[in-house]
Amino acid sequence: MPRAATIEEPRHRLIKAARQALTGSRRSLARIEISVEPMDALAWLYAQPWPDRVFWDGRDDGWTMAGAGIADRVDARSMDALELELRPRLATGDPALRYFGAMRFRSEIAPSGEWEAFPPTQFVLPRIELRISNFTATLAVNVAPDDSVEMVEATIAAIEWDPPNIPGALPEMVGRADCPDEPGWLCSVDQALATMQTTDLKKVVLARRTSYVFDAILDPFILLSRMGAARQHCFQGLICFGQGTAERTAFLTATPERLFRMEGGEVISEAVAGSRVRSSDLDRDRLLGNELLHSEKDRREQLYVLEAIRSALDPVTINLQFDSVPSVLNLSHGRHLRSMVKGSLAKSVTAFDLLRRLHPTPAVCGSPRDLALNAISELETFDRGLYAGPIGWIGRDDAEFAVGIRSGLVAGNRLHLYSGAGIVEGSDAGLEWDEIEHKLDDFSVALGLVA
Question: What's the pTM?
Answer without folding.
Answer: 0.93
